Structure formats: structure tokens, C-alpha cells
């Protein structure tokens, strides 16, 4: 059984080398690595040629493509029975291929293997951890409660997709969590592209969970998801969303069409990309399917984000707020402005511990993201290869009892 590792890339050769090394280090042989170079300025082709390994295949796009198109380009050039999308700043953990083959045999060729992952941020990525950190990243409840691999029920799979339609994150949408069969990808493509929307992972992962007949959950971590100063996660974490959006799109990409009075609102690009992905998923599933994105909740989240960013966190100027207010009714503007000013004044006079409690209460009320704090690995890692050298996926803990996680 051949497994295809898809590796789209653009101008991140320094990190791409680590991702490729993590595949070449594996003991198994029956795999292929598809590098889809999105018109890089760096000499990715020369690097691949220097590997002199026929299992590593290189394809360069003729022009700069949106990220989603480059993902589909990588998938189109692959041939394996199973597929994993790996970012150029990510890595396979030791034993990945053996684990997947073991699960495919044990569970009679499931459509999807949803495996655990670790998160590694490089130095200079997050303000609160300038030296970088490594931590468990399996925040899905169906991962955390598992001690060994098992078949996920259809009811649970459909439940987490319904939550995704309501902008409640209950499991990781990153495609690095899922090794999926080519057969199911072809069937779910329905004659078109498998990856769709500006957030292709949000779309494709939820499509798999909504429609795949057999999903196996593996609690052992199989991959490391990396965040570098050149990744979308970096721009999002540091409030540089315009740069992050530009990274996902290509020049001249048209704005998506909306329906009726559903307009895209200022706020965080995460919510807008999420909404568009769910809209695309709903269209793919068809009118007979009950899954529909909640525009009302999207609208509420964008309003709260924009008002709190301006009045509470003071992380944006007046322009975004004025743009949003043009979409609101006068009564809405009055209510939200009053509430945001009160909250902003309170956060400036309350002690730091009380402010954290206040913000935590708001997060719990919105229920957009699950409560998850596994703690961080106390060790320091220079780069992704350092992580691979020091981590044993068979014994890596699901949480660390850090001071923060006990609080």
C-alpha cells in the first residue's frame, strides 16, 4: 500500500528541508512525496534534484496560485491509496507509516484515520513564548478520552460538523490530523476539486467527517504541526490578518458571491474564512442535507470581535469599526457601543487576575473554542529536527502538569 505525502510549498525552503527530512527518516519504503512548488523564487527544484530520490517528485506551477489550487495540484499528481497533507513547516513523527498501515489493516481500510498531533511554534512566533514551544495538540474530546485506536461513531462525526456550522470548534480542522483514502476523496470530489474555499482544510476535514462511512481515531501523535514566522498561524497570532489573507490568496482572486442579505463583515479573517468554507460545504452536500452555516452566529462573532478589538483590546483603529457600523442598525450600534465601552473601562481598572476571569467567562459564553490547556513541554527545541530527535510518539504525554494548566 502506497501512502502519498502532499507537500505544497512557496518560498520556505529552510523549513521545507525539515519536512522532507522527516519523511526520508522513516523506516518504511512504500511511499511517495509530492512537492507542489507554488511558483517559488527559491531554488526548490535544485534542492529536490539534489536528493536523488525517485520517491520525491517535484512539480512547479506556471503562475502563483491560491493556496487551495496548489493543494489540489499536489493531490492531482499523487497516486497513493492513502493521502496526507503535510505543510512545509510540519513534520512526520517517527513510525508514521507503520502506524497508518497497522490501522488500515486492523480496521479494514477505513476512509479516514484521524490521528493525534503535536504543535511546535518556532522562536519569535508568539509574544508569550519568544523561545518557541512544543505541546500536545489533540484537543478533540474524542481524542483525549481515547487510550487506543477505535472507530468513531457516525453520530459523533456528524455532531462535530454541526458544531462547525455553528462556529464551535470541537476538533482540529488542520488536514495534518487526517490520513484519508484516495477512494473517498475521489467520491467526495463529485467530479470537481476535493479542496475548496479559501480555507481548504476547514472545508475538506468537515466534508470527510460529514460523509465518510468509516473514521478511525488514533490517540498517538503521528505528526507535528509547525508554526513559523512565515506561516498563516504567525500572522493570525500577531494580529497581522491582512498579510495572512494575502498569503492564502492570489492576486486578482474574485470575491466570493453571497446570498440575499448575508454580507461578509469586518472582524477576524478566521471567522470569515470559516463561514465561506461552511457555505461551500453546505453547497456541496446539497439542499437535501440539514447542515447549513449559521450566518446569525457568524455575524454576532464578527461584531463582538470588532467592538472588543477597538474598545477593550485597542488593537485596531477606527476604520474597521466604522466599516462594520455601516452594516448595523442604529439600535445595534447603540447597544454594542455602550456594552463595549463599559467592558473596556472595566478591563482598564480591574486587576489582571480579574481581567483574566472576565475574559474567560466571555469565552465560555461564546463557546467558540474548547477549553484546552495541556501545558507545554519544558524542553527547548532549536528547530523541527530537534523535535524529531527528542520526541518519542509512543510515550509522549497528552498533557503536562504545568503551573498554568493547574490554575
Structure description:
By secondary structure, the protein is of the alpha/beta class. The chain has two domains: 3-234, Spore Coat Polysaccharide Biosynthesis Protein SpsA, Chain A; 275-366, no CATH class. Helices cover 44% and strands 14% of the residues. Helix 6 packs antiparallel against helix 8 (200-211), helix 12 runs antiparallel to helix 13 (318-325) and helix 12 (295-311) packs across helix 14 (330-349). The longest helix has 20 residues, at 330-349. The radius of gyration is 21 Å and the shape is globular. The model is unreliable at 402-407 (pLDDT under 50).
Key words describing this protein structure:
407 residues, alpha/beta, 2 domains, ten-stranded mixed sheet, 10 strands, globular
Briefly say what this structure is.
44% of the residues lie in helices and 14% in strands. The protein contains 17 helices and ten strands. The model is unreliable at 402-407 (pLDDT under 50).
Spell out the CATH superfamily of the largest domain: Spore Coat Polysaccharide Biosynthesis Protein SpsA, Chain A
Weakly predicted, low-confidence segments: 402-407
Largest sheet: 10 strands, mixed
- Summed up, the helix count is 17
Specify the helix fraction band: 40-55%
- Oligomeric status of the shown chains? single chain
Assigned CATH architecture of the largest domain: Alpha-Beta Complex
Amino acid at each position: 500500500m502506497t501512502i502519498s505525502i502532499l507537500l505544497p510549498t512557496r518560498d520556505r525552503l529552510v523549513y521545507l528541508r525539515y519536512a522532507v527530512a522527516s519523511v526520508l527518516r522513516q523506516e518504511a519504503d512504500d511511499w511517495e512525496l509530492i512537492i507542489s512548488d507554488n511558483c517559488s523564487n527559491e531554488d526548490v527544484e535544485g534542492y529536490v534534484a539534489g536528493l536523488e530520490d525517485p520517491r520525491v517528485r517535484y512539480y512547479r506551477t506556471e503562475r502563483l496560485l491560491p493556496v487551495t489550487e496548489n493543494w489540489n495540484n499536489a493531490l492531482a499528481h499523487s497516486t497513493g491509496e492513502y493521502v496526507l497533507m503535510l505543510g512545509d513547516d510540519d513534520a512526520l513523527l517517527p513510525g508514521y507509516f507503520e502506524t497508518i498501515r497497522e490501522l488500515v489493516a486492523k480496521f479494514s481500510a477505513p476512509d479516514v484515520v484521524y490521528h493525534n498531533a503535536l504543535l511546535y511554534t518556532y522562536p519569535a512566533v508568539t509574544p508569550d513564548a519568544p523561545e518557541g514551544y512544543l505541546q500536545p495538540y489533540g484537543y478533540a474530546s474524542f481524542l483525549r478520552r481515547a487510550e487506543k485506536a477505535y472507530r468513531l461513531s457516525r453520530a459523533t462525526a456528524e455532531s462535530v460538523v454541526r458544531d462547525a456550522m455553528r462556529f464551535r470548534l470541537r476538533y482540529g480542522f488542520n488536514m495534518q490530523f487526517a490520513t484519508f483514502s484516495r477512494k473517498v476523496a475521489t467520491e467526495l470530489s463529485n467530479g470537481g476539486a476535493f479542496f475548496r474555499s479559501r480555507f481548504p482544510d476547514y472545508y475538506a476535514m468537515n466534508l470527510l467527517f460529514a460523509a465518510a462511512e468509516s473514521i478511525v481515531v488514533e490517540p498517538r501523535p503521528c505528526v507535528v504541526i509547525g508554526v513559523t514566522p512565515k506561516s498563516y498561524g504567525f500572522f493570525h497570532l500577531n494580529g497581522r490578518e491582512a498579510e495572512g489573507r494575502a498569503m492564502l490568496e492570489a492576486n486578482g482572486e474574485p470575491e466570493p458571491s453571497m446570498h440575499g442579505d448575508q454580507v461578509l463583515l469586518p472582524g477576524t479573517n478566521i471567522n470569515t474564512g470559516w463561514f465561506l468554507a461552511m457555505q461551500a460545504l453546505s453547497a456541496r452536500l446539497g439542499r437535501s442535507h440539514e447542515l447549513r452555516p449559521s450566518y446569525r452566529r457568524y455575524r454576532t462573532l464578527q461584531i463582538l470581535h470588532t467592538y472588543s478589538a477597538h474598545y477593550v483590546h485597542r488593537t485596531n483603529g477606527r476604520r474597521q469599526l466604522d466599516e462594520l457600523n455601516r452594516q448595523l442598525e442604529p439600535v445595534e450600534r447603540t447597544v454594542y457601543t455602550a456594552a463595549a465601552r463599559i467592558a473596556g473601562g472595566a478591563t482598564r481598572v480591574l486587576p489582571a487576575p480579574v481581567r483574566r476571569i472576565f475574559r474567560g467567562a466571555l469565552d465560555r459564553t461564546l463557546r467558540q473554542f474548547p477549553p484546552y490547556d495541556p501545558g507545554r513541554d519544558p524542553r527547548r527545541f532549536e528547530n523541527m529536527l530537534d523535535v524529531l530527535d527528542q520526541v518519542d510518539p509512543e510515550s509522549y504525554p497528552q498533557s503536562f502538569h504545568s503551573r498554568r494548566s493547574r490554575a
